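--- STAGE predict ---
source: upstream dedup step, 1 unique chain passed
mode: sequence only
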Amino acid sequence: MKAERPVGRVRRPHRPPGWGAMADADVEAVFDRLAEVIDPTSDLHYGSPFELLVAVVLSAQATDASVNKATATLFPVANTPQALLALGEDSLIPHIRSIGLYRTKAANVIRLCALLIERHGGQVPSTREELEALPGVGRKTANVVLNIAFGQPTIAVDTHVHRVSNRLGLSATETVEATEMVLEERTPDRHRLHAHHYLILHGRYTCTARAPRCDDCPLAVWCSSTTPAP
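--- STAGE serialize ---
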């Protein structure tokens, strides 16, 4: 005789490791809604792929607002690898002193400029391997540059994207690397190009780390942090 399943027990579909509890149909709805309410434009100010690369390198462990303030004085003086290399590390530092880790970043930017000239004719490369070989450029920075400057559907995961993805139930991960892997699998193809902008801007202005604005959240109906589990 077949044993009866305990009353009230619900069999849930198998999910790969790191996938959150959000149903696939809801993932589609979430990204559709984000596309309706968010303009997927970077908060960083830049006028060329090189300016973007420098701004993203400077933005590590710093706010976009602080980077924009620094580059507002820097880029009018030097906004090419050749000009920045000629400016030199000592003269670069006063422009970026208000940004965290400014000494390390200054050294990285100058070395980055030298390598761009030496290896790429002063142009920003369009492959992950070449970008990550540059000083101060990790996976997230490379993803941002590939996405914005070259229109590649990469998903750059920072603390905002990681937090929002886990709160919503898109992912259930411990690291930004694991979150990126999940989002690569779960993001609808039509939203991949702008996915990280949707999530980062939602995390920056609505789903904030402290005191998230749940009452004003356009995703509240799908959010695993604000609705009971099914």
